[in-house]
Specification:
It contains nine helices and nine strands. With 220 residues, it is α+β, with helices and mostly antiparallel strands. The two termini are 17 Å apart. It binds flavin-adenine dinucleotide.
Length: 220
Amino acid sequence: MSENQTYSRLNPFVASVKERHRLSKSGSGKNTQHVTLDISGSGIVYQPGDSLGIYPTNDPHLVEWTIFAMRAKGDELIADKQGELHSLRTYLQKKANITEISRKVLQEVCGRQTNIEKKEALEHLLSEGQKEALKAYLAVHEVWDFLEENIEVHFSPEELCHLMMPLLPRLYSISSAQKVVGDEIHLTVAMLEYETNQTQRKGVCTHYICNLAPLNEKSV
Ligand SMILES: Cc1cc2nc3c(=O)[nH]c(=O)nc-3n(C[C@H](O)[C@H](O)[C@H](O)COP(=O)(O)OP(=O)(O)OC[C@H]3O[C@@H](n4cnc5c(N)ncnc54)[C@H](O)[C@@H]3O)c2cc1C
């Protein structure tokens, strides 16, 4: 996909979701959606099969659970890497990966854990030869439930935010031909939903594109 000079990975064009509808039959177990993006004014030129990156926003419910697990209020100020200030709520929505636990968060929680049993369990996961066990543990936790399981550990909101990984864009393959659809991009998105740790989880970006992004507002 080639971009108008003005837009790049560092200065992405913000498109809007024009339409979305489910392709898979309800009850089929799969939730595949046809999503139409409006790219009017972008000057973007693409071919079918090209990929585009979408910057998602975290689910507001997940953000509130994370704020609660951090024992914060949400209005604390957090500086990003460029020194720009955001409220904790906005930072968690737009900047932080709150669905995956970074090694830094894991190590720091382990270091600060005062409950000996929990500390030893984390030390074991972080020790040599426990790669698979660690992977399995991380696969069934998001930041909020990891913090709740380690309620003894305290961080300032900014400290914890700076230990988290950044929220990254996801790639999607373009299924439309520009000659046919003009200023639109059509995507086929497989909504990711699964259960771990007795909790229903949703893929960050697929949930955003298929459910959360407001229609006809520049948001993706
Ligand atoms: C070049 C390219 C093109 C792509 N094109 C498309 C496309 O056209 N359409 C499309 O739908 N996707 C496409 N993808 C995939 C897309 O980029 C995303 O990875 C996908 O949509 C999931 O993103 P998400 O943010 O919803 O999920 P995330 O929040 O990133 O979650 C994904 C993670 O969830 C975890 N997970 C998933 N299932 C389970 C489970 N059962 N149990 C435990 N953990 C689980 C895994 O850790 C996985 O890494 C493409 C990827 C690439 C690289």
